[in-house]
């Protein structure tokens, strides 16, 4: 009867074991009751061990005989029996240390198994003794299984030795070490290698166990450790990792994003992008790094647009890889959405010029209403290859007046052969209002001096006319050749540009350029008009060649010279000689017009020469 056996079992707790003859009988009966078919009897036997004050002082051999039966019912089908067995085992905790040193290896093995059912705090004091058992082949597995429950700070000390044992033991033993996954990213390379070696022994079921573990740290660590494994392991658990994106713990969500980011792009789930709006920065960071690897078209741009504010924040992070990932993802947004963060995008891309090419949607910013957006577009486009900028040259030229610096830099980087004639003409007109600083960036303009289109040639000369003399000087010979061009717009532009250089330089090459071309006097006059002065060497050349000047050119020179304020003897002498030449013209110059021009300029000396060399007129009426 069950009630009889229970009564007999409970009576054992009152037996006086000081009598040596009673002790063996008590142990044998306990073993019998622990194996009884009735759960109540088995539970009562465990309670005997719990209640006896002497249990911890029982002879080790006697305890060794009880342990196998006690361990057996730890897996009892009855819950209250399992609980009673665990409590009884805890009662024997202080005896197990002695059993670990028992001479009988079977006793040591049983004691290892018994310890493995205790808490990690209870096992911790025995860590070194357990490590010693690793050297005994028949005890290695039992010792490893027990050590798997050690706290991390104790486990790391023996990790290298444990990794060696794992090579000889079944994978199920390695799978007990779920708490070492965090060591896969340890700073100590030896610890890291040992941890990876152990988790590398896990089967797929071991990874499922770790990724589904009740402890947050284990789940997060498993997500990060799995990327150290062969790619097939990561692919196999892709669905489980995707499910962890919804985990309640932020570290687990972040780690899941980290793991999924190591998948091939074609297998990367689009759900990672949904975490770009996570409340935790760590999660948004890892989600951004993973989402940047999504293939084009994996997620609709309009769906990504809702994450734009967080992407803009991530683009300002100190981590260069994160900024790059945020920029990569931001580039997939519609252009009008990106325009709200134009400045942030432009600043972030300064470190990634190759990535700027992904932002092809920003070309529409050139027509934006806000100047800061247009400026950001030009800044980003300076990092584009020339062929990408070419279709937008007209828009950039239009921005030269409002954004002379950045638009000038952008246009100046383009090969001049990409500029259409109307672009060059428009460019020269814009640069006239900006000044030499912007114009001098266009170092490729001299390459246009061989162009066949007169509009291009004259515009190129006009742009170069804005350059400072030191910059312009080396190009004077090419400009001088254009003085022979049949198109008036070309040789006039070249003449004016040379004159501006000539204003501060007396290079003989420029003078030779004038004197070697047909009608040089008229061109010299134009050059002097552009500078509002007569360089002395031009005057000297005119004095020497005055008789060879055609009458019509003499009239032009007289008109201009009459307006000049030069009062040197060379100027006055030249004026008198030019009057003689002009008189041979079929339509002599009206002296009254010359007098009027000289009087308006306040040039009394010129007025006197005009009066003395012709019929006197009433100057008072003219002035």
UniProtKB/TrEMBL annotation:
ANK repeat locations: 590-622
Pfam families (alphabetical): HEAT_2
Taxonomic lineage: Eukaryota, Sar, Alveolata, Dinophyceae, Suessiales
Chain's role: Catalyzes the hydroxylation of the N(6)-(4-aminobutyl)-L-lysine intermediate produced by deoxyhypusine synthase/DHPS on a critical lysine of the eukaryotic translation initiation factor 5A/eIF-5A. This is the second step of the post-translational modification of that lysine into an unusual amino acid residue named hypusine. Hypusination is unique to mature eIF-5A factor and is essential for its function.
Protein name (database record): Heat domain-containing protein
Keywords: ANK repeat
The keyword GTP-binding belongs to this UniProt entry's keyword annotation: no
InterPro entries to which the protein is assigned, alphabetical: Ankyrin_rpt (IPR002110), ARM-like (IPR011989), ARM-type_fold (IPR016024), HEAT_type_2 (IPR021133)
Superkingdom assignment: Eukaryota
HEAT repeat coordinates: 66-104
């Amino acid at each position: 009867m069950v009630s009889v056996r229970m009564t007999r079992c409970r009576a054992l707790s009152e037996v006086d074991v000081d009598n040596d003859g009673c002790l063996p009988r008590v142990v044998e009966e306990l073993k019998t009751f622990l194996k009884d078919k009735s759960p109540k009897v088995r539970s009562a036997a465990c309670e005997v061990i719990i209640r006896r004050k002497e249990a911890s002082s029982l002879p080790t051999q006697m305890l060794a005989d009880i342990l196998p039966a006690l361990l057996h019912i730890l897996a009892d089908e009855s819950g209250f029996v399992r609980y009673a067995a665990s409590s009884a085992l805890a009662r024997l905790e202080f005896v197990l240390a002695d059993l670990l040193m028992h001479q009988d290896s079977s006793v040591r093995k049983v004691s290892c198994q018994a310890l493995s059912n205790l808490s990690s705090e209870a096992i911790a004091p025995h860590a070194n003794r357990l490590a010693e058992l690793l050297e005994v082949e028949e005890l290695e597995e039992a010792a490893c299984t027990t050590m798997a429950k050690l706290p991390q700070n104790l486990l790391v000390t023996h990790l290298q030795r444990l990794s060696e044992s794992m090579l000889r033991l079944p994978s199920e033993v390695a799978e007990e070490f779920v708490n070492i996954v965090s060591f896969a990213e340890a700073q100590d390379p030896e610890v890291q290698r040992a941890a990876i070696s152990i988790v590398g022994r896990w089967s797929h079921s071991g990874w499922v166990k770790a990724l589904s573990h009740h402890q947050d740290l284990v789940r997060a660590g498993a997500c990060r450790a799995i990327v150290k494994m062969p790619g097939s392991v990561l692919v196999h658990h892709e669905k489980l990792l995707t499910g962890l994106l919804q985990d309640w713990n932020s570290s687990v969500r972040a780690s899941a994003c980290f793991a999924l980011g190591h998948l091939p792009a074609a297998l990367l789930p689009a759900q990672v992008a949904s975490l770009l709006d996570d409340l935790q920065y760590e999660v948004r960071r890892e989600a951004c790094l993973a989402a940047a690897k999504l293939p084009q078209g994996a997620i609709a741009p309009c769906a990504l647009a809702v994450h734009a504010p967080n992407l803009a924040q991530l683009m300002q992070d100190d981590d260069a890889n994160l900024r790059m990932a945020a920029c990569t993802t931001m580039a997939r947004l519609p252009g009008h959405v990106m325009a709200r963060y134009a400045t942030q995008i432009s600043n972030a891309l300064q470190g990634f010029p190759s990535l700027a090419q992904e932002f092809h949607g920003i070309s529409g910013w050139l027509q934006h209403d806000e100047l800061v957006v247009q400026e950001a577009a030009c800044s980003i486009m300076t990092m584009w290859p020339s062929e990408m900028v070419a279709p937008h040259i007209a828009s950039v030229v239009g921005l030269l007046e409002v954004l002379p610096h950045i638009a000038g830099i952008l246009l100046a980087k383009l090969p001049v052969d990409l500029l259409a004639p109307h672009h060059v003409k428009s460019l020269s007109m814009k640069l006239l209002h900006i000044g030499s600083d912007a114009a001098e960036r266009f170092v490729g303009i001299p390459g246009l001096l061989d162009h066949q289109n007169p509009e291009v040639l004259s515009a190129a000369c006009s742009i170069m006319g804005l350059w400072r003399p030191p910059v312009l000087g080396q190009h004077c010979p090419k400009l001088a050749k254009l003085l022979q061009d049949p198109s008036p717009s070309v040789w006039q532009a070249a003449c004016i540009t040379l004159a501006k250089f000539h204003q501060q330089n007396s290079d003989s090459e420029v003078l030779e350029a004038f004197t070697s071309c047909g009608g040089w006097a008229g061109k010299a006059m134009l050059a002097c008009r552009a500078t509002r002065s007569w360089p002395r060497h031009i005057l000297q050349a005119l004095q020497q060649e005055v008789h060879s000047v055609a009458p019509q050119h003499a009239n032009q020179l007289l008109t201009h010279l009459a307006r000049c304020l030069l009062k040197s003897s060379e100027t006055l002498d030249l004026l008198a000689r030019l009057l003689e030449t002009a008189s041979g013209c079929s339509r002599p110059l009206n002296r009254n017009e010359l007098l009027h021009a000289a009087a308006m300029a306040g040039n009394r000396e010129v007025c006197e020469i005009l009066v003395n060399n012709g019929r006197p007129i009433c100057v008072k009426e003219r002035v």
